[in-house]
């Protein structure tokens, strides 16, 4: 929790859950990425993806790029700024109060081994 509080105080842009999910999807899955494909993967409408993409594009974290083979297609592509943002966010999470040593909410801790086994 401390890591998230420090992040909020850092002055970095606050992203919505949808924006963060879109950003992580583009960076963690192989492309090419389209608005239609991203909407399907996230289970939301294309306008929802477009709004999130507008914000992420304005921040420089993602960008739209025309397909050179078929100019009708537009791909969503990664940027250096987006990669740097995610790397910095990951550092905030890891530098927290040792939470990387504890399981995430919903994860079960490993049961201790019994001496008699």
Automatic annotation (TrEMBL):
Residues annotated as domain HTH marR-type: 1-117
Molecular function (Gene Ontology), one example: DNA-binding transcription factor activity
Top-level taxon in the UniProt lineage: Bacteria
Record-linked PROSITE patterns: HTH_MARR_2 (PS50995)
Record GO biological process: response to stress
The protein's name: MarR family transcriptional regulator
């Amino acid at each position: 929790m401390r890591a998230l509080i420090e992040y909020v105080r850092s002055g970095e842009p606050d992203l919505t859950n949808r924006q963060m999910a879109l950003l992580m999807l583009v960076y963690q899955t192989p492309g090419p990425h389209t608005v239609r494909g991203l909407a399907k993967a996230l289970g939301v409408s294309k306008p929802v993806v477009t709004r999130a993409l507008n914000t992420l594009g304005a921040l420089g974290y993602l960008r739209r790029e025309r397909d050179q083979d078929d100019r009708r297609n537009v791909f969503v592509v990664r940027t250096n700024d987006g990669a740097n943002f995610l790397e910095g966010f990951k550092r905030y999470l890891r530098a927290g109060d040792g939470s990387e040593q504890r399981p995430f909410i919903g994860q079960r801790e490993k049961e201790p081994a019994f001496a008699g086994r």
